TrEMBL record, chains A, B:
Residues in Aminoacyl-transfer RNA synthetases class-II family profile domain copies: 52-306
Domain of life: Bacteria
GO CC annotations, alphabetized: aminoacyl-tRNA synthetase multienzyme complex; cytoplasm
Protein name, per record: Proline--tRNA ligase
Gene that encodes it: proS
Enzyme Commission number(s) of this protein: 6.1.1.15
Length: 515, 515
């Protein structure tokens, strides 16, 4: 077979430099995703390959989220990948919302034609086409019908980790892909009140995860009518600000009312012996969060990962020009690594040991090796050179503060492990505070539509009055490409008039351009 | 909408009893899967719903296996669900092996016709059909082409956790389903020797997992030519004996040679500057293992789960007829639960705390409550009644030994936590030993084809001489429905003659009927 190499899907540049954020934010993002080995486009249109460095972040996200779900009483299960086409017709909004972008299975067999490869066997046509799930409300509520008979069967508090497919035409690694990984919670309740409490609880779980693990501050509140999930009564969301001032919807929690129970005939006998339809919620976050993580913290040197989600916490670089110099540096590095790994397992790191990598790549210059560690986003680097060792000390560099400012010289080796353990906590807090300061500095208020139109050309979120109608929302979106991101729970109460129609408004809502 | 309940997919019987193994082994299996809440058939042909109790076992399997993979240097990644049809033609054996049973995506859009629901949009036809992955060698090796340039890029030691689809016509929960969950490792190496060592290492990892976590003894060795993976040079496997004497292939590790590197043009520059094709392995285990777990240990009272994989380790049942009797029993139960949960996290339980459930369901009789715990397979039950409490003691019952024999009365509450912790280890060992004793007692030798044909009607494995040819293997399989399960690594060396052809044989191989 011919040995022709297919063109790589990596950026064409060979200079190994990351584009700066100032030069081209979108190229900067793509450079980081490729250069840090997080993901790449596959030969299947719109589908990404999540590379080991990217997947390791997802695994840490999964562990943390899964722990939060279980702590709030949820269990995991798994439902089919395929959804019969007829299920889509049962809930009207769902059909409208997802029909335009779904992968359809029509046949169940190929046949081999010798010399010609394989073709679809026309005789193996499905009676009813199957849709690759874009989300699983329909198949799950069809299943719940048999699981829910009495109020004693409720609540059902179930989550699923899986892949879903939405046939997106314009894709972007992590942020928008045809196939992505996510979790989807689907709960059933006996009362509206309980389902609404669940909807709120889960968006608060997402907030906690975003703020305490991702170190990404978020704004929490309901979506407007124009932005809610198809099939939901209302949608609560967490919204984060990226470094270019755009919004990223990072998680949503939907109160579905009795829509799916009615569509799939899910009823239960209540305490008084009467049959009622069950109340539903659903909530999800996806690998899109990795995109949000990158764009919240990373810098022109590469990826920055908050320690609680970092696959590797500490990179130790022994140095030396000769074997004589290297041997004691390697020994000290191994000793420190062992000490770090042996620290007591703590909740902060999900009861996992601190993860340490030894860089023994002496072929490259220290500068190159340090830059590689920075590119990959490892939170702490330890430098162990002959001069440090003379003093039984090391240099500790923190990734969140690049350059000399982030370096502490002369850290005694006897104290290094415990100081690094504390430093990891400090970095986590610093990343959150820095992102919050940035975000808060980039939220402004517009008092007229004129002002709004000028402001929206600058990065950031805008507080503005809106009359609460779908029409006005759609008009603003068409004219400015900005959408209502959220009606924050903690917005100030302030009566005013809609910037577009002049009709009364009960308070400002948050507008932004978004991913 | 009409409130008609769809017929449940659960067995029709209402008597709540599990069919005994002796009465009908296959119904017994199905009863356990349904009654213990492990899985059920969905409305999508061949696809199962893995229910929370079943999925919790899978999660524990994943944790243990993932730990073993990482301890041997592997990392996780994620590759696309879809495979372009043309990829199937590139490796001939793959195409032949999987083409007959795959789900084909031909369209990417539905359209809504008001009043009529949704139909497939004929204008949204894919130029090239996509296959839902039945296994990912092709898409992964297509990706590896860009990842592998030099010997420095090797080895690639990558694993993926995902769903796959094989359009099976006759399905059985966990054992054979159209969609199932699995892991698939795909490694690339610079030398044949290294790839073969990896193939062996991974089947040994599977053996370790089967024996030390699943408490399921396995036989390890290569498959015969007729049973190997399409596209492999050879396949190593672990084979277990179920309680009906049938074999279950529980995991496979394939040495793929350079087949996929050649099919997808994956070459690297070796240390001498010459380009070579990379060497490949792949290896996988799936949710099928849950079927094997059930059929290895469970009994006529229900599920039996080895402690290292049990989602709940201990069920504590406080008892009492009045509130006055119940209150101190509940208090003692809560105290014991807290003590068990607070035991130091140990490797044996994957550094997870011991999982304890309190059964406060006083509406039901103690007998009913105990039976429920047994049905679900919880390894240890603690009974806390008024008479036990008078003596500051409890009853500890082990699930692996049903009835009075498995009960220890008068266990002092002060000692209960540590004794239960030890008992869990004892149960794990006992389950393994019992399964091994059973298996070893059900392996016999046949010295003629006559004898073989009689013996194969009885449960168990058969050692027999075979001439090593595909023809003879196929003949035996057609005539007896028994296949060569494995050519065990540790088979005794014994020259003989093939029971069918009389041709020379270097040693006996293991035959059985299988799942
Ligand atoms: Zn109804
Ligand atoms: Zn080639």
């Amino acid at each position: 077979m011919a040995e022709k190499k297919q063109q790589s899907s990596a950026p064409a540049k060979d200079d190994n430099k990351i584009t700066t954020r100032a030069a081209n934010y979108s190229e900067w993002y793509q450079d980081i995703v490729y250069r840090a080995g997080l993901a790449e486009n596959s030969d299947v249109r719109g589908c990404m390959v999540i590379k080991p460095n990217g997947y390791a972040i997802w695994e840490n996200m999964q562990k943390a989220l899964d722990g939060l779900f279980k702590a709030t009483g949820h269990v995991n299960a798994y439902f089919p990948l395929f959804i019969p086409k007829s299920f889509f017709s049962k809930e009207e909004q769902m059909a409208e919302g997802f029909a335009k972008e779904c992968a359809v299975v029509t046949h169940y067999r190929l046949k081999s034609i010798p010399g010609q490869g394989v073709v679809v066997d026309p005789e193996a046509k499905l009676e009813e086409e199957l849709i690759v799930r874009p989300t699983s409300e329909t198949i799950i509520w069809n299943t719940y019908r048999n699981w829910i008979q009495s109020y004693r069967d409720l609540p059902l508090l179930i989550n699923q980790w899986c892949n879903v497919v939405r046939w997106e035409m314009r894709t972007r690694l992590f942020l928008r892909t045809a196939e992505f990984l996510w979790q989807e919670g689907h709960t059933a309740h006996a009362t509206q009140q309980e389902a609404e409490a669940e909807t709120l609880q889960m968006v608060r779980v997402y907030q906690k995860f975003a703020e305490e693990w991702m170190a990404m501050p978020v704004i929490v509140g309901p979506k407007s009518e124009g932005q809610k999930f198809p099939g939901a009564i209302y949608t609560l969301c967490i919204e984060a600000m990226m470094q270019d001032g755009k919004a990223l919807q990072a998680g949503t929690s939907h109160f579905l009312g009795q829509n799916f129970a009615k569509a799939f005939d899910v009823t239960f006998q209540n305490t008084e012996g009467k049959r009622e339809h069950a109340w539903a919620t659903s909530w999800g976050v996806s690998t899109r969060m990795i995109g949000g993580l990158i764009m919240t913290h990373s810098d022109d040197n590469g990826l920055v990962i908050p320690p609680r989600l970092a696959p590797t916490h500490v990179l130790i670089c022994p140095m030396g020009r000769t074997d004589e110099e290297r041997a004691p540096a390697i020994a000290a590095a191994e000793k420190l690594a062992a000490e770090l790994r042996a620290l007591p397992r703590e909740d902060f790191f999900g009861f996992q040991p601190i993860s340490v990598k030894l860089d023994l790549d002496f072929k490259n210059s220290p500068g190159f090796r340090f830059a590689e560690g920075e590119l990959k986003g490892i939170p702490v680097r330890v430098e162990l050179g002959p001069k440090d060792l003379e003093k039984q000390a090391c240099v500790v560099a923190r990734r969140d503060i690049p350059g000399k400012e982030g370096k502490t010289m002369g850290v005694p080796l006897t104290e290094a492990a415990s100081r690094i353990s504390n430093l990891l906590r400090e970095i986590q807090a610093n990343l959150y505070n820095r992102a919050k300061t940035f975000r808060d500095a980039n939220i402004r208020s517009a008092d007229s539509y004129e002002q709004f139109k000028e402001m929206i050309e600058q990065p950031g979120f805008i507080w503005a009055h809106w009359d609460g109608t779908r029409e006005t929302e759609d008009k603003i979106s068409e004219e400015t490409k900005a959408t209502i991101r959220c009606i924050p729970f903690d917005r100030p109460l302030e009566e005013g008039t809609c910037m577009v129609t002049g009709n009364p408004s009960q308070g400002r809502v948050l507008f932004a351009r978004s991913y």
